[in-house]
Specification:
Number of helices: 5
Strand content: 25-35%
Radius of gyration: 27 Å
Strand order of the largest sheet: 5-6-7-8-10-9
Structural class: alpha/beta
Shape: elongated
Helix content: 10-25%
CATH class of the domain at 73-164: Alpha Beta
Largest sheet: 6 strands, mixed
Oligomer: single chain
Number of strands: 12
């Protein structure tokens, strides 16, 4: 390795995982201007150390970063806002905690409506089937909307449907489907709750807009 023209900004000493089959590991790594400029033995990379070089001894290993290419930053910002309660498995792993959070939010919000995100029966074992009867039992007179952890569907009660103007006769928007709760005159309520695929929530505004509903649900 030839001597560098100038010293590196940062040098790591430790186990370096290179993901290079010809040299799977190394002892040191040098970074300059945000780029890796040297990987090799401690002696080789030591040539890059100058007066202003930050040197770190790594108790572990250094490896290439993992890029998460399926993120939804806007959706996450909305879901983690103050208007929607976070009930994802990473936050509330136990079913009892989820149910308690739902009841607490319904009691807190009253007529403004309760909105929660992260329902996941596959990971939160013991959650009940979110039928219309169950949702209406939790919130008989006020809107309740629970977004699935996948973000691809949401469950809502009869009060939320009334607030949004949804009935059995409401046509499904293109590319989406809704199992609408019955009207007041219906004699055969569906077994499933109101459910909408790929919903979008805007909780930071007084009006909670859902693209898949014909009107806004007022928050």
């Amino acid at each position: 390795m030839t001597s560098p023209i100038e010293s590196a900004d940062l040098v790591f000493y430790g186990t370096i995982l290179t993901v290079d089959t010809a040299q799977p590991t190394a002892e040191a790594l040098a970074v300059s201007g945000g780029r890796i400029v040297a990987v090799g033995s401690r002696a080789e990379v030591a040539e890059w150390v100058g007066e202003r070089t930050e040197v770190r001894e790594v108790d572990g290993c250094v490896m290439p970063g993992f890029v998460e290419a399926h993120g939804h930053p806007l959706m996450e910002a909305v879901a983690l806002s103050g208007r929607i309660v976070d009930i994802r498995p990473v936050t509330l792993p136990q079913a009892e905690e989820v149910l308690a959070a739902i009841r607490a939010e319904v009691a807190k919000r009253g007529a403004d409506g309760a909105f929660l995100n992260g329902w996941d029966p596959l990971l939160q074992h013991g959650l009940p089937e979110p039928t219309l009867a169950w949702l209406d039992g939790i919130a008989p007179d006020t809107p309740l909307v629970i977004v699935h952890n996948s973000g691809h569907k949401a469950y809502f009660n009869s009060a939320a449907a009334r607030r949004a103007g949804l009935t059995r006769d409401t046509p499904d928007p293109k590319g989406r489907s809704t199992d609408a709760p019955p009207t007041a005159s219906s004699t055969a309520p569906p077994r499933r709750p109101g459910r909408c695929s790929r919903c979008s929530v805007m909780p930071s505004r007084p009006r909670i807009t859902r693209r898949c509903w014909p009107r806004s649900v007022r928050g």
